[in-house]
Amino acid sequence: MSLAEQVRQAALPLESAADLGPLLRRMGDARVVMLGEATHGTREFYALRAALTERLIAEHGFSFVAVEGDWPDCKRVDRHVKGQEGDDAARTLRAFARWPTWMWANEEVAELAAWMRGWNEGHPLEPVGFFGLDVYSLWDSMEEVVRYLEERDPEAAGAAREAYACFGPYMRDEHAYAASTRWIPESCESEVVAVLARIAERGVVDERDFDAEQNAFVAANAEAYYRAMVRNDADSWNVRDRHMMETLDRLLRAHGPRSKAVVWAHNTHVGDARATDMARAGMVNLGQLARERYGMDDTFAVGFGTHRGTVVAGRSWGARMEEMRVPPAVSGSWEDVMHEATEGHDALFLLRGAREPEWRALRGHRAIGVVYDPAWESPGNYVPTDLPGRYDAFVHLDATHALRPLHAPVAGGREPPETFPSGM
After folding, report:
1. In what helix (H) or strand (E) does residue 322 lie, and over which residues does it extend?
2. Would you tell me how many other CB atoms lie within 10 Å of the CB of residue 412?
């Protein structure tokens, strides 16, 4: 039987919220559910992940959402959904000022945050949280640590301020700091590690303590990340994904032995790196590390893909966001095979246990980041992938649309049509 025929037979319809049932039944008992995305700017990926997240919380008792975002920014969202800050989700999300703002400051996330706030109002004894897993917030996290110590331990605040002054010459420019460490042996590593050790010695009594310790942890790993970034891409990638794994583990431990997490991150983070060419480059990722730490029974990874459509991205790092065309997937890619096999329909694939050699062969799988140019797409945006090895399930959305940012209007942007029924 050809691969196309196998794909056709394996495809489950995805036309309404009711069609999520088979996927939810498979993932609901896991401790960690990881929901991917093939781009950081596709409306349907966010909307479908939100629909799944709401049902995981309401029907399966999941404790928090952890996303590929910075800890301090996401902590403001956490306070909002717990009724501790602001009445308007969109206003809270507009505080995401670091490029790419659209990843979390968008209407799709605002709708999820509003739902979470409503849920928490009805369940005040076990509120569901919203946290950031990423490592980029070096300056903001250092400021949060000093602010906390000024409230709790002024003497320690002075010591932290003095230690963090090591970064002063770089004027909040992480790349300038990273570049300096390439040519000058001195770095600020010992300073951030010393502050982390002092914060950890205080112990964690309340949520504010945990937040401060996490910010000190972010600062230490951010320093290591930026230092590695100028030397080796694989090393910096591994620092970042190991930080995500440790942050996820810290959150699960803090929420107790019965806690359960929903993770939102790009496919390149949630899909097991061992099922791609990343492993040959010496790279690990969150999906691999989670499976190794918690086991297959307690993890469930869902990949997402699209054949064509539009997306929000920038043409270079820091460039203005644009709505760009996503061209039809290249011939022979997973997206192309699914498009042909499903005759252009959306579909769900439950992959765990698939062993047929046609499924397990490496085949290109599209990955679009925050920097994108459709003219450069082939072959650089396709990751050789053993699909059942990488994910436990896969969602194919044939035609997709750019998400709706909350900040400045997207260049050339248009309001996309509704493609999922309300409630999804």
Report:
1. strand 322-326
2. 11
